[in-house]
Amino acid sequence: xxxxxxxxxxxxxxxxxxxxxxxxxxxxxxxxxxxxxxxxxxxxxxxxxxxxxxxxxxxxxxxxxxxxxxxxxxxxxxxxxxxxxxxxxxxxxxxxxxxxxxxxxxxxxxxxxxxxxxxxxxxxxxxxxxxxxxxxxxxxxxxxxxxxxxxxxxxxxxxxxxxxxxxxxxxxxxxxxxxxxxxxxxxxxxxxxxxxxxxxxxxxxxxxxxxxxxxxxxxxxxxxxxxxxxxxxxxxxxxxxxx
Length: 243
Description:
Elements lengths: L11 H13 L4 H8 L3 H13 L3 E4 L2 E4 L7 E5 L2 E7 L5 H12 L5 H13 L4 E2 L3 E10 L2 E11 L7 E8 L8 H15 L4 E7 L3 H9 L3 E12 L2 E11 L1
Parallel strand pairs: 8-9
Antiparallel strand pairs: 1-2, 3-4, 4-6, 5-6, 6-7, 7-8, 9-11, 10-11
Helix pairs in contact: 1-3, 4-5
């Protein structure tokens, strides 16, 4: 999945069209044209150029920020048929639900933050001058059972880094799904040219720390008593992996 599209569109209307689609995730062309009050012929011309340049794509009659297609990975996870693929806007409800279920275990603060942001914005994929955000999901019978998320700051001195979060619903753990999601996220980041991925985890989440260590992550620092879970202060373990 390659982020496409530059932020120089050659025409103000094209920039406004892209910005509106990016903020809303998915929108029908007629509704978009009315929202921006652009003359129909000019609107059609600008949208055609944005599609031609790989900036926007039309899926099921709605415009979205364009991404290169990614082959779906299908496999048997300990007797359960599972698929890993790029997340789609229509996955939003199921994905947020899965993230919240994992976060409610109380040991993954970063995931809880991701769920709050996505639920508030109601947009999965972001690609603008401040940040880029992508998700891959693991599904069983079209239900989201796991995810890997990468958030990339579009700030010059940090553009070589990406923040990664990953989780699998409790009933689907121990089947290799998490490892495959990790591989998909790492491969995407490496293909996009990022040099380092990082994540922060409460020290009480030893399972996650061991999982990351087993996939080549190292502890960079520990911030003492950084989290407060209930009445207890818990250290933050800051982990990273160079690609």
